Known about the structure:
This protein has 268 residues and is an alpha+beta fold. 17% of the residues lie in helices and 40% in strands.
Amino acid sequence: MNAHEIDYQIFGEEMQFVEIELDPYETVIAESGSFMMMDDGIELATIFGDGSHKEENKGLWGKVLSAGKRMITGESLFMTAFTHAGSGKKKVSFASPYPGRIIPLNLGALEGKIICQKDAFLCAAKGVSVGIEFSKRLGRGFFGGEGFIMQKLEGDGLAFLHAGGTIVKKELAIGESLRIDTGCLVGFTRDVDYDIEMIKGVRNMLFGGEGLFYARLQGPGTVWIQSLPFSRLADKVVSASRHYGSGSNKGEGSILGGLGDLLDGDGW
């Protein structure tokens, strides 16, 4: 294996975190802001680039270019490397940013590549490359929810993704297709064909409430789907804050509810 061999354990239900166990001189890389806690003896270093061993042979300008590519996906220029510099075994933990599930993926068993949504990556063994995947299809780029760019994880080590709500894994046979909400797509293996289709029917488009497009994925390969995209969660929070932000939540739980707010003048 080119990537470091790490052990792990996932804790929690709605708000999970993953605990990585490192042997001496093993390293795990992570996005900035995902760190939770670590044992003494683990050294932290901020790095440019995609986290793979290939970065070590590049000059400064090559590393800057790799880091710049990450900025296109909305991520930071920097990644953080956590290395066990002592003896024995040490542990470092990374937390999920919002309610959902952490998915462990062995890239070596998945043909060495996973394509995922831009903010799904949490952490990975040193040697896994975290890059970008450009779409060559205009429809997918304009209406796919993630634009022309998604993340790609390449290598033969363990990587960890995070997604909202419950995660469903679907195995698609050759020619088998699946249609899903564009925001619910977490990731898929390299051989899956991914495109965008418009919802049929004028009435469905105008009054269906499900958007104008959905993602169409065709096998062979594996697809991961989330039940609660962060954008959907954020919309619900914003909507609730507007409704209850002015103190109108005093009617919550009553029979009248919102009608009571209208009667006492708060709804006007």
